[in-house]
Each structure stands twice: as structure tokens, then as C-alpha cells.
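Researcher: Next sequence.
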Amino acid sequence: MQFNDNAELDTSQVADRRGSGGRVALGGGGLGVVGLVIYFLFSQFAGGSLPDTAGFGDVGQDQSISSESLSQKCRTGADANANADCRAVAVINSVQAFWKDQFARSGTTYQLAKTNFFKGGVQTRCGNATSAVGPFYCPADAQVYIDLNFFQQLQKDFGATGGPFVESYVLAHEYGHHVQNLLGTNERVGNETGPDSGSVRLELQADCYAGAWANHATTVPTASGQPLISEIDQADVTAALDAAGRIGDDFIQSELGGGAVDTTKFSHGSSEQRQRWFTTGLETGDPARCDTFGTNDL
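Model: Next structure:
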């Protein structure tokens, strides 16, 4: 995956909260794709549940990654090619430019959503969360939250191949949840689980939306008129499919939880489903083909 060296980055779409302090606790709702996967892994297969009181420690200034602001170090696609923080900014810019265009085509207006980089823990309108829940989208404040160290965890604990396009898939999936929030799709889903549950349908649709963006990623222009992403190759796609497979409910239950697969507890879909729906979006490039709520064949 490569970025256009001369394309401009818009860091106003990202808030870097990694240097903010405060004690954190897990609570509230609205945790998104991989966040719920990680939470499910810990709560169902690690011999207990995550505590709902402070106990994950403090997030202090000593945990700040850099005093340099994103706006200073992330200016162009060249910066995205050289720096992981800037790469995330570039992907976020591209994903939101894609959805802005898609909404405009249907005569509606896309509302930009800010992504928050945090480290250790963060406060949101959906409650407080630690890095243990992974990336998530909070519908109450319409923002995405991510500890970028998650990508290392995805490789270390889940055995994923990793790489820039895997990171892009995760971020694009979270923005799929933002689109669902804008369209009111998430209002159709409760807390039920199971292979045909609304939760599974919501997550598979977000995977498909991520694939639809990926189909257009090298042609989506930003405010500067130039596409941010210049190349996505088959190795990138293969890595993303590998990651999708490793965060399927069945993989987590059997490989990471060390137990039998219980489909009644599915909340995100099987590995095969997640790969298939991402591929559907990738091959068609059409969000309308991502209607997981209108099919019996998940």
C-alpha cells in the first residue's frame, strides 16, 4: 500500500488524546467491531470478565507518544508513507472522502466523524474504555476511538499478518459503523447474539462497507483533488482477508478461547462470513450490495 507523496493530509479529522491524563474504567455501550471482539475474548474465554471499576491504571503524561502535533508532522502523503500516525490520518481522510461522495450521489450530506487516538484509556459519551476493548465507534458522540498499539496486538495475539492495509481495513470498518449511525441502521439492532442476529448483520455490513471503500481507494480525491492512495496490491488484500478471518467469532472461540464453537454467542460473524462480505464490497465497490439485513444468506 502506497500513498501519493504530494497529496495533502487533513489532520482536523483526528484528535490526538494520547497525552491526556485520567483514571479510566470500562463501561457504557456502543463499542464497535474489534472492540467487542477483544471484550468477548476476555470475558468469555479468559476465566472472567473485565472489571467495571478503575483498576487498569492511570493514563499519564509519561505515556504520551510524542509532543509533536499531528498537524506538524502529517502534512502530505509522503509523511503517510514514512509514519504510522500519518498513515492512519491519510486512510481516515480517504475513507471519509469516499463516503462524502457516496452520500452526495444520493442527495444527502455526509457528516464527518473525528477519530481519537488514545493510549491506555479514554472517556467517551458511550462510557469509559481501556485499550483492551480495541478500536470502537461510539454512536452517542459519533466518533471513532483507537489505540494504535492495537495493530501490534492483532499480530502478536491473533497471529495476523498485519501491515498498512490491515490497519486501513480496521479503520474503514469503524467508519462503516458511522455510516450505519447516520442512516439509522444501528437502531434496528439490539443486544442479541447468534448466527442470524442483528449484531452479526451490522458487523458484516461494516466489513462490506470497508471493502467498498477499498475498491475506490486509489481514485477517491481529497480536497486537494489528488487521490491519497496510489497503490493497493494483492498482498494488501490478502493481509486484510487474513485479519478478517482471525477476528471471526468461530476463530476466536476455537483458536484463542480453546473451546468449542458456540454459534449462539456469535456477535460479529464467522471468519468465512467476514472475509466474504469484505470481498463483496471490494469486488463490487457498491455499498448497495452490502444489504446484510435483506438477505437470508449471510
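Model: Residues 21-67 have pLDDT under 50 and may be disordered. The first helix runs from residue 33 to 45.
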